[in-house]
Amino acid sequence: MYGSPQEPERRLSARRKRVQKQFRKSFQRRLFECLEPRQLLATFNPSASAFDGDPGSLRAAIIQSNSNTEDDTILLEAGTYSVDTPNFVSGGPENAALEGDLDITEANLSVTIQGQGPDLTFIDANQVDRVLHAHPNTIVVLQDLTITGGLASDDGADATGDTRGGGILSENATLTLINVRVDGNVVEGKDGTLVSPDAFIAAGGGIFVDGGSLLLSAGSVVSNNTAIGGFGARGADADGVNNADGGRGGIVHGGGIAATSMITILNSSIVGNSAFGGFAGDGGDSTAATAGGDGGTGGSAHGGGLFLHDGVIRNSLIANNVARGGPGGFGGDGSSDPTGGSDGGNGGAGGLATGGGLHSNGNLQIVNATFSSNVIDGGRGGFGGYGGAGDPGISAGGNGGQGGNGGDAEGGAVGWSDCELTFRDV
Question: Among 89, 166, 173, 178, which residue's Cα sits nearest to residue 132?
């Protein structure tokens, strides 16, 4: 009626086997289905002793990382990596990392350059070019190292106009600095010419950020960087036809950092940076009955430490930075003539200086930051030119030109224009 005594045990054993088989199939299916595609990661270990551009050098690692379609980590040892190959072939900005600065170009993939600490690992451009250029849509992380010795005289693409980023130029990139020191870099503005007498703009002695973003964190320091405006051209000697007035000195933005887009500064220091407006050109001397040319206006200087648009600054120090307007040009001398001397030209006004610590023209939030010992100086006005001599007893000499006004100075710690600032615990 109930079958054999072993029947229940056989049924239970068969059922157990079916369950075990189903479990094994389910486990195997999950094992294979749950594995997701992994992004490949390449690691490079360049040597500080390798000559720039040779196999095993930092430049060689950057060139390889630009084309390997992988996220990359470049591990640097203690020592100094010299980036000192001039732009021999191109004669100007070269953007494949073969010459000049280190160009990071592979879009939408990350490059992490990791040192042993800012007191141990240095990347030094030796005043050949800026140190590093992050191109559009790149993701660049610098950690535990020092960027130094950069000297920029171009904007990354054109060597005839404005100059940007003495240490680092970041264009529409995502740039992160973690425990990094950016120290002792320079951006120099181009001088004016007789055809185009006004000097060009120089921006970002340490770092220039144009689009994208910058995060500065974990004890990073931007220090002892300089933005220097170019010289205005001297006016042509005045004969009533040529332009006799001197050119404007070059405008400068941000001795330490200049940015047109969002930057975030956390637990970091901006110290000892300088923004110097360019010297104006002198007026040309008179060679006819016309007056001497007027001196140009000195270049303005905005943001000794920082020149920002939108940003956040938290738990950071901004100290000992300087913004100084350039001096006005001297007026040209009048000409001497028996029928009467001509007047000397007027001296040019000194350049405006704003924001010894920082200048903002966007939306900026500052929380628990310290501003200390930042300085601003307006540029001095130029002397007026001498009036030309007449014939004694017969004709009068010309009047001397008026001296130029000294430049204004606004905001020893913070200067601003067309912006919204929020301060808390400052």
Answer: 166
